[in-house]
Automatic annotation (TrEMBL):
Active site per UniProt: 285
UniProt keyword annotation of Membrane present: yes
Function: Is probably a protein kinase regulator of UbiI activity which is involved in aerobic coenzyme Q (ubiquinone) biosynthesis.
Localization, UniProt: Cell membrane
CDD domains in the cross-refs: UbiB (cd13972)
Boundaries of every ABC1 atypical kinase-like domain copy: 91-340
Functional pathway: Cofactor biosynthesis; ubiquinone biosynthesis [regulation]
Name this polypeptide is given: Probable protein kinase UbiB
Main location (coarse class): membrane
E.C. designation(s): 2.7.-.-
Length: 548
């Protein structure tokens, strides 16, 4: 806890140094951060000569990889950010300060068990690019193949785990103190992000992901994924094919070559939906620093994707409901949107469909009144998210990665071609996917793929049926015994109640006699035979043990 507090104080100190307090209204801050800002040294609040974009970028760089990746996501949303901030955050893609070249050599030689000079015919000591988690060096294999060598930053895992611990602390505070804290499920979201970013620390996972994506698009001209050289790949070092593409943000070069930017933007959307729905395996870190363009044929441009460390996939149910929800939004069928949210459990089952439908219509209709090419799907998601508070809709951690990727894709597409009509590009694809997935041929194909598994389990089917019947019978017998036990317990309680009532009669009579003046004296004159008859009467009235 002490280390997290120190980290929080460091964040506040860095924010103060770069004057980020000027970005916000301090009156909206909770009391503790507001007090800490006042207590920080005034001398640290002097970074003259920096504009707001530079201040934000330098703050994120100094805070480390978790915050840098957040800045990378923001840099793709030029429709949400002022140009000066977007331009500065774009420098986070591959211009993070590199670590020392001698450290890179040591890491490579330790991992691969040989000197760099024997591993490579040529090795560039100056890194080609430096990102938040790793940096990349150019090299040439002894066979003449041009490659890139990716090396993890030394000590990066400890830094990331420290930041994750702080994020967990912040998430728990949000869950506990904010009105919408539980609905937003911040701890689950951080846990989901932890799995993603920790996977980035094993370059063998990234290599395996790249191989899978390469196979998925092996016969396609839409996207090219570089080849992996497994003999030179370890947990903290990865060697892959070096590509010669144009950075997707270099619009000047793309335009000079006459690249069809409209087609390029539409293909980006097509690639996204193909990965999500056809392959169910999508590149989930598609910021501009990881995307290049093959403009060899300017009329038929394609993409080149690197850095496959973060990938995502959905369950069959999530795929189905996501596709139908998107189609329903495209068609403005708000009734179906509401029903699907209830069906898939994204809102509580007691939600009134007609109320949810009405809220969706109120949010979406003003958006759709604008020209379709001007509608930001990401902005629409923000509107829908704010409306969901009324219906206690929880954040779905499994879809957070997909939402982030969709925001990246739309931001990138609109940067290439501002008039991009994402809706017209996506709707035919989704309709085709649903039609094909649930066609008789597709259902028969899935049954054929499952047939070997069914045949393998067929000999055990009679035993499974018998066991289920026995379990059902045992359950029924157990339920009967439990019912008999509850009935017996109820009868015993009733008998005890009757006993108390019977005892109350003689006790009450005795109390009445004692209350009468001289009553106690009369008791002494009662014959012993009368006391015996009274006891016999009580015994006859008392329930027998077999009646209990």
């Amino acid at each position: 806890m002490l280390s997290r507090s120190r980290r929080l104080l460091r964040i506040l100190r860095i924010a103060r140094r770069y004057r980020l307090h000027e970005f916000i209204d301090k009156s909206t801050l909770p009391p503790l951060p507001r007090l800490l800002l006042k207590l920080l040294p005034r001398r640290s609040a002097n970074k003259a000569g920096l504009d707001r974009g530079q201040s934000l970028r330098l703050t994120l760089e100094e805070l480390g990889p978790v915050f840098i990746k957040f800045g990378q996501l923001l840099s793709t949303r030029r429709d949400l950010l002022p140009p000066d901030i977007a331009d500065e955050l774009a420098k986070l893609q591959d211009k993070v300060p590199p670590f020392d070249e001698s450290q890179a050599r040591t890491i490579i030689e330790t991992a691969l068990g040989a000197p760099v000079t024997s591993l490579f015919a040529h090795f560039d000591t100056l890194p080609m690019a430096s990102a938040s988690v790793a940096q990349v060096h150019g090299a040439t294999l002894h066979g003449g193949e041009a490659v890139v060598v990716k090396v993890l930053r030394p000590g990066i895992e400890a830094v990331i785990r420290q930041d994750l611990a702080l994020l967990y602390t912040l998430a728990r505070l949000v869950r506990r103190y904010l009105p919408d804290g539980r609905r937003l499920r911040p701890v689950e979201v951080v846990a989901d992000y932890e799995l993603v970013i920790i996977d980035e620390l094993d370059l063998r996972r990234e290599a395996a992901n790249a191989c899978q994506l390469r196979r998925n698009f092996e016969d396609s001209t839409l996207v090219y994924v570089p080849q992996i050289y497994w003999d030179f790949t370890r947990r903290n070092v990865m060697v892959s094919e070096r590509i010669a593409g144009i950075p997707v943000t270099d619009l000047e070069t793309l335009q000079a070559r006459g690249t069809d930017l409209k087609l390029l933007a539409e293909r980006g959307v097509e690639i996204f939906f193909t990965q999500v729905f056809r392959d169910n395996f999508f590149h989930a870190d598609m910021h501009p620093g990881n995307i290049f363009v093959d403009a060899t044929d300017p009329a038929n441009p394609g993409y080149m994707a690197v850095d496959c460390a973060i990938v995502g996939s959905l369950s069959d149910a999530d795929q189905y409901y996501l596709a139908r929800n998107l189609l329903a939004v495209f068609r403005r069928d708000y009734r179906e949107v509401a029903q699907l949210h209830v069906e898939c459990g994204w809102v509580p089952p007691e939600t009134r469909v007609q109320d949810f439908e009405s809220a969706m219509r109120a949010v979406c209709e003003p958006v759709f009144e604008r020209p379709i090419s001007d509608i930001s799907f990401g902005q629409l998601l923000i509107y829908l998210f704010s409306t969901a508070r009324r219906f206690d809709m929880e954040v779905q951690p499994a879809l957070v990665l997909l939402q982030k990727t969709l925001l990246n894709i739309e931001g990138l597409g609109r940067q290439l071609y501002p008039q991009l009509n994402l809706w017209d590009t996506a709707q035919p694809f989704l309709e085709h996917w649903i039609r094909d997935r649930y066609s008789p041929q597709a259902v028969l194909g899935r049954m054929q793929r499952q047939l070997p598994s069914w045949l393998e389990q067929l000999p055990t089917l009679p035993d499974m049926i018998l066991n289920n019947l026995q379990q059902s019978g045992n359950t029924s017998a157990r339920q009967v015994r439990e019912l008999e036990l509850r009935t017996s317990q109820l009868e015993r309680r009733q008998q005890c109640s009757r006993r108390r009532q019977l005892l109350a009669i003689p006790v009450g009579l005795l109390a009445l006699v004692l209350a009468v003046p001289g009553g106690s004296a009369h008791l002494a004159t009662v014959p012993a035979s009368s006391w015996g008859l009274a006891a016999l009467a009580l015994l006859l009235l008392w329930p027998r043990s077999g009646q209990q």
